[in-house]
Amino acid sequence: MNRKMILGFVAGVVITLGLLVSVPDSVVQVATGTTKDTSMVPALSPTKALPDRDVYFPGTEDLLPEEMRITACGTGMPSARPKQAAACFLVELGNGDKFLFDIGSGSHERIAAMKIPYDFLDKVFIGHLHVDHYGDLPTFWLGGTVMNRLTPLRIWGPSGSKPEYGTQYAMDRMQEMYTWDIGTRSGVVDFRGGELEVNEFPFDGVNAVIYDENDVVIRSIPAVHGLDGAVSFILEWNGLKFVYGSDTYPNKWFIEHAKGADFAIHECFLPPTLLVTKQGFQPLEALTVGTQGHTSPEQFGKVMSLVEPRIAVAYHFYNDFDIEPEVRDRVRKTYDGPLSTAVDYMVWNVTKDNIRVRMAAKDEEVWPSPALKEKIAPDFRDAINFSEFTLSGMENFPEVVEPLYEEINKKYGTDFKPGL
Ligand SMILES: [Zn+2]
Ligand SMILES: [Zn+2]
After folding, report:
1. Beta-carbon neighbours within 5 Å of ion ligand 2
2. Closest ligand to the CA of 105
């Protein structure tokens, strides 16, 4: 049975079951074991909810104690586009721990769409300091304090060949950059969630443990990308091994230490031909960027044929209807194992004996989840005052504002009065 016949056969089974959902290739290849026996399918009714929707609705599913759920919150490029944010993968474990691997530009919106209380999202691992891999950290950090994070945000990232190429340097400057923003919050809101814990580790550690808490061990391996100071990560928990490549040229450390992973993510750049025709690169520039600075689909396939993961995940390209088939065909020249070509909001549930791949349905109108801790009332004496100049410009409109205070005071039995 050739590949098309297999797809046709599985599609036929799915249609027979009456499941009117699209089935990505990756689902077909990995999760055929989840295909239901027809005797298990309940009778459909015109008035009852449809059974077994093969979609992930954030915030509605328990994670099993032995389960790992991975959500693509960014799979694209540094260039902005509504369909794909830049690199970010959320890993949730059945023990309650959650980890973000990279937090590229545009990804915060996708993270928020998962509707997870922000105090649970307190660990971010940055593979390298390109903007498409940590460009949304400031909005997640400071915006997160408005989304009820009251727990310090913990960051892990590599050193560089010089201190100024390291994560600590970047984090120190990021905090300086937002001095005005932080100043506005002093004495006004509970800002405990604005505290940063920075853990910089040597970029040249090979399979070095950089995190070991709550039966979760995360190791780093060097990557070859940009400058010294890029790494890949390996998370191991409960007999499951998750590998995140951030950006890297194919390298011996990934091939050796990602070996046998349950879930392995590696960059897979656009092929040079498409860099020329679709992105306007010069041919030599396309070859250099596409095969020397990054990993082409054929190189990605070669790496995965050596790593042999339970599922290989390709990302970091424009995953469109006219692009994906060519990328997939090129990967297939060198790799014939299970594969997902990731796009934002793709979700994988991984256990020891099954990998289920779905797309998340997103609610566009997300609000912050409730705070998990009681908020500490701010001390207005810590607030930074306006100058006399700015104060002189205020129009107080007491006839409009005082009724708002009365409304709240009446409802909550308080005695607040207007005034900064
Ligand atoms: Zn990069
Ligand atoms: Zn990148």
Report:
1. 132, 247
2. 2
Alpha-helical (H) ranges within 86-206 are 107-113, 131-134, 137-146, 167-177, 179-185
Q: What is the pLDDT of residues 307-334, one digit of tens each?
A: 999 999 999 999 999 999 999 999 999 9
Measured in angstroms, how far is the CA atom of residue 232 from the centroid of ligand 1? 12
Distance 215 CA to ligand 2 centre (A): 30
What's the CA-to-centroid distance between 75 and ligand 1, angstroms? 13
State in Å: Cα 144 to ligand 2 middle.
24
Q: How far is the CA of 218 from the centre of ligand 1 (A)?
A: 21
Asked if 104 and 80 touch (Cβ cutoff 8 Å), the reply is no
Asked whether residue 16 carries a pLDDT value surpassing 70, the answer given is no
Distance from Cα 292 to the centre of ligand 2, integer Å: 14
- How far is the C-alpha of 415 from the C-alpha of 420, rounded, in Å? 15
HSE at residue 83, side-chain half, CA atoms within 13 A, is 10
Question: Could you tell me if 254 and 307 are in contact, meaning their C-beta atoms sit under 8 angstroms apart?
Answer: yes
What is the whole-number distance in angstroms between the Cα of residue 254 and the centre of ligand 2? 17
Residues of the chain with CATH 3.60.15.10: 58-360
Query: Which ligand is the nearest neighbour of the Cα of 107?
Result: 2
Stronger pLDDT, 22 or 261, i.e. the higher one: 261
* CATH topology classification for 58-360: Metallo-beta-lactamase; Chain A (3.60.15)
Q: Which ligand is nearest to the CA of 87?
A: 2
How far, in Å, from the CA of 262 to the mean position of ligand 1? 24
Contact partners, residue 327, CB within 8 Å, separation at least 6: 268, 270, 271, 297, 314, 317, 319, 341
**13 has a pLDDT exceeding 90:** no
> Is pLDDT at 7 greater than 80 in this prediction?
no
Q: What is the DSSP string of 348-407?
A: EEEETTEEEEEEE---SS--PPPPSSPPPPP-GGGSPPPPHHHHTT----HHHHHHHHHH
What digits encode the pLDDT tens for the residues 228-278?
Answer: 999 999 999 999 999 999 999 999 999 999 999 999 999 999 999 999 999
Output the CA 130–ligand 2 centroid distance in Å.
7
